[in-house]
Each structure stands twice: as C-alpha cells, then as structure tokens.
Amino acid sequence: MNIPDDLAEALRNARHVAVLTGSGISAESGIPTFREAQTGLWERYDPQQLATPEAFDRDPELVWNWYTWRRELVERAEPSAGHLALVELETLVPDFTLITQNVDGLHGRAGSSRVLELHGNITRTKCSVEGVLVEKYEEDVTPPVCANCGAPLRPDVVWFGEVLPAGVMKDAASAARSCDLFLSVGTSSLVYPAAGLPYEALMHGATVVEVNPDETPLSAEAHYSLRGKAGDCLLALITTAFPS
Ligand code: APR
Prior knowledge:
Elements: H1 5-13, E1 16-21, H2 24-27, H3 47-50, H4 53-58, H5 60-76, H6 81-92, E2 95-100, H7 106-110, E3 115-117, E4 120-127, E5 133-134, E6 153-157, H8 166-178, E7 181-185, H9 197-203, E8 207-211, E9 224-226, H10 230-241
Helix pairs in contact: 1-10, 6-10, 8-9
Bound molecules: adenosine-5-diphosphoribose (APR).
C-alpha cells in the first residue's frame, strides 16, 4: 500500500491523533460487522433488528441468546493486526485518543491504555430497569433477572435509539475538536452521533483520514481515503510515517 508523503508527514508532525474505530477493525478478528449477513445459527436475523430496546421488550430471550453467542465469539477472538497497530501508534505520538463504537473490548485486550467506548461493552451486564451493573447472576432463566428488582438483565451496550453515555461522548467530541489528525477506521460512517466526530474534526482544521475497503459517506469529505483492510493500511501508515 502506497502512503502519500504529505499524509506520512502530517502523522509524523501531529501532536494529537484521534482515532474512531468501527466493527471493520474487528472483522479481521473474526467478529462479523453489523451490516454484513450473519452466518450459521443467526443467519435469519438482522443485527439491526436485534440490537434495539423494542426487540428486547418483544423477545428478551431471543436478544439475550444472540448476545450470548456474540459474547462467546468475542471471548474466542484475538485482537487483529489493526488493534495492535493502534497500540503502537499510541506510543509514537505525543497525545492520542482512541474512540470506538465496538462493544467487544478488543482494543483493551490488545493493550490500548485508554479507550472511549461509545456503545458500551458486551462483557458487562446491567439491570434493564435500574441500569446498575451486575457482576453475578443465576443463569437458570433466560434472560437472567436482577436480584434486586426482578427485571430482566441485559448487556451494557447502547442499542439503536438509545442515548450514548454522556461523559464518554463529551470526551470523544472534545478530542475530535482538538486533534490535528483524525483517523476513521472500519466504520460505515452511518450511525450518529459517532459518525459526526470526523466532521467535527474537519470543522476544527484536522486532517481526516478514512481507512476502509469500501466507500462511505465520509469518503468524499476526508482528506485521504486508504482503501484496504484496517491492519494493512494502519501498518503501512505507521511504518511510512515512523521508519525505524
Ligand atoms: N478493515 C477495515 N474496514 C472494514 C474491514 C476491514 N478488514 N472489513 C469491513 N470493513 C468496513 C466495511 O466496509 C464497513 O464500512 O467496516 C465497516 C463496518 O460497518 P458497520 O457494520 O456499519 O459497523 P460500524 O460502522 O461499526 O457500525 C456502527 O452501528 O450497528 C450499530 O452500534 C452498532 O457500533 C455499531 C454502529
């Protein structure tokens, strides 16, 4: 992959780099993205129809079982070359903010030190009514219930139509406004408010770089579009900007 000289220079000179990742970076870890067809047991279902409060109200057992399957996939998965490249990038720039829409926790497992998880984390569970995190629960009913109030438990993730955790979104927006280089990696750039972050960065003068094998609504606005897999593009970008 050929990295333009001026992009390598922009990365080398950047004081603050912000990165937004989406499910494309975990595709190389074997976790299916949200908008590709599912295979096997769940191929009849559309993730966008399962990851909603309405779906959980209608059929909590189905939604819980789908998340159990995703959780097992995540447990078996290993961080990808893209996750590892971002761990390295963090050590190469003075100030670094990693923002993710992914709920799989793979950035943390790869070794990234601080991750702004906009959509929560699938490994955590909370009460669907009280919102309180729950560590232990009986698994004899599906979904399990809250020991305190008896309401069904649910994954601690943000579903379509739900509000993002305010503090995390505030920190992400502030990073987008103050960075000098913004990387959008493996996201379809369709789901707001996360999809608004690169535009925030553009408005505040940052160089915006997209990494995605396919075109997205951001492609026309980004200064650079690296067309390829997250791992390949990020490695090429880092080794070109910081030759050892
Ligand atoms: N490297 C980089 N990008 C990839 C790769 C790869 N190896 N494989 C696929 N992609 C790209 C696809 O081209 C697509 O644009 O990753 C993107 C994945 O898009 P989505 O499935 O829409 O995932 P994402 O953008 O993370 O979704 C945002 O929507 O479903 C909700 O809350 C959920 O966090 C999710 C949010």
